[in-house]
Amino acid sequence: MDKIPIILKEHYNLDAANILPQRGGWAALAFKVYSGNHAFFLKVYEKSRASTPKWTALIDQYVPITIWLMQYSGLKGKLPVPVPTKTGAYKCEDDEGIYLLYEYIEGETIGDKALTAEQVGELSNMIAELHLYGEEIPMETKAIKEDFTVPFWPQLRNTLEREVHELPPDVRELITPHLKQLNGLADTVEKLSADLRSRNLRMALCHTDLHPWNLMQAGRQLILIDWEGLKLAPVEADLMFLVDEPYYHDFVQIYRKVHNDFAINPDVLQFYRYRRKLEDIWEFMEQLLFDRQEAQERTATLNHLSKELNEITG
Question: Which of 77, 104, 131 is the last residue of a domain?
């Protein structure tokens, strides 16, 4: 945090009067920055974290698309876009981190609260609008196009099959009872992956991380944040987060006013749900194996991993 004022001055010409830590997300630290009469939101992806390359590799590919959506689609005012640096870049970095700066959104994260009927309607309209756009947009989408691969699986499989005895005792104790289920899940994902690559599936722009912690209510406006996972993909990449929600029927009724021929593809839905489950498990394992964590943070990560593992066995 000591370097943040230097970063802000050097790359944004901002004099930070105050910097307050905020609740961060899965991928990054977060700070509220006061400069003059303005407040900004700074995301800091720590280079020491094993997951950072995954979340930051495509910044220069996905941010221009979010800017295009903000300017030319019905999503104007409904998603954040980064403040450009003095050179017009979307991000800046130093030896310790990669930084993205945003205008601060005065609002409240939905988080654990249930969505109201009005918010369900807003969310459905937002996602229906997002799904109108595909590779025909005047932006480069090749880097974010779904290829149905499972890039983390070789490392996870190697850890489970060859190196499980080398895991730290607390991780090994959690993982070992679930090895059969994990491998079965992975086999299903690999088969679906090969099958879906051969199909001609319609793809649309998808957020791919539609959970309530990525939704903010700012005044009367619902805002969808954290677009690191933006992909050109089948719409099930988004709808997998909603199909089990109590409001799904209402969501779909509104969604079908725009996409009247919509129907869930069960194979695609299963692929995304299973791949996400494996990905979440590997994320927690990565944190435990490769990241520097204090005792309290490690305990929390172990609890998250235990919950994910129990869900595939239960």
Answer: 104
DSSP state of 99: E
Let me know whether 9 and 131 are in one domain: no
Taking the model in full, what pTM does it have?
0.95
* Ordered strands of the 97-103 beta sheet: 18-22, 29-35, 38-46, 97-103, 92-93
Residues 147 and 246 in one domain: yes
Q: What is the DSSP string of 191-204?
A: HHHHHHHTS----E
| Residue 217 bridge partners (DSSP) | 108, 222
pLDDT single digits (tens) 116-171:
999 999 999 999 999 999 999 999 999 999 999 999 999 999 998 877 888 999 99
Residues 76-106: pLDDT tens digits?
A: 999 999 999 999 999 999 999 999 999 999 9
What is the residue range of 21's domain?
1-104
Cα atoms in the Cβ-side hemisphere of radius 13 Å centred on 30:
13
Q: Are residues 238 and 152 in the same domain?
A: yes
